[in-house]
Design goal:
Layout lengths: L2 E6 L6 H11 L4 E7 L10 H12 L5 E6 L3 H7 L4 E6 L2 H16 L3 E6 L9 H9 L10 H11 L3
Parallel strand pairs: 1-2, 1-4, 2-3, 4-5
Bound molecules: 4'-phosphopantetheine.
The site of 4'-phosphopantetheine has 11 residues, from β1 and α4.
Length: 158
């Protein structure tokens, strides 16, 4: 079985992530969406909250499962027989960082496959969504309705 992982902080999941997950699910037998820690980012939602949102929004893809991991991504891949990491590339600004991580992970024998983000999502990021939501901006075109509701509740202090 060819199993891939779509890793990320997913704080929260956006339509950009979902596009990559859907396209990966069409090319692998199983796709694990794994919530990992990014030590450079402070999170708005707990890992459990993020996993719940991912489960709700990926339930229509039968070969997609959701997991979390505290540690190195390559160790997750080895422990769970994952053959490939799939990541979306939005623009050249993503490239340096993503290439560096892909090359580090390749040293452990784990391949990374990049998918070009669909142009409609090229500007989209969880950070942008959180910034807009914080100031009452409309993010309904950027995240699924359940995520939009969770964002509204969180910025309202709930
Ligand atoms: O959505 P993000 O924040 O861009 O995802 C980055 C993430 C979580 C995939 C990355 O930070 C990661 O792989 N974290 C786990 C620790 C690790 O393996 N780091 C890379 C090698 S130093």
């Amino acid at each position: 079985m060819k199993r891939a992982v779509c890793p990320g902080s997913f704080d929260p999941i956006t339509y950009g992530h979902l596009d990559i997950i859907e396209r990966a699910s069409a090319r692998f037998d199983q796709v694990v969406v794994a919530v990992l820690e990014n030590r450079t980012k402070a999170s708005l939602f707990t890992v459990e909250e993020r996993m719940t949102m991912i489960k709700e929004t990926t339930s229509k893809f039968p070969n997609v499962i959701v997991d979390s991991w505290h540690g190195l991504l390559v160790d997750y891949c080895k422990t769970n027989s994952v053959q490939a990491i799939v990541k979306g590339l939005r623009a050249v600004t993503d490239f340096d960082y993503e290439l560096q991580m892909a090359q580090v992970n390749l040293q452990s024998g784990i391949e990374t496959m990049f998918m070009a983000t669909a142009p409609a999502h090229s500007f989209l990021s969880s950070s942008l969504v959180k910034e807009l939501a914080h100031y009452g901006g409309d993010v309904s075109s950027m995240v699924p309705p359940t995520v939009n509701a969770a964002l509204k509740a969180r910025v309202a202090g709930k």
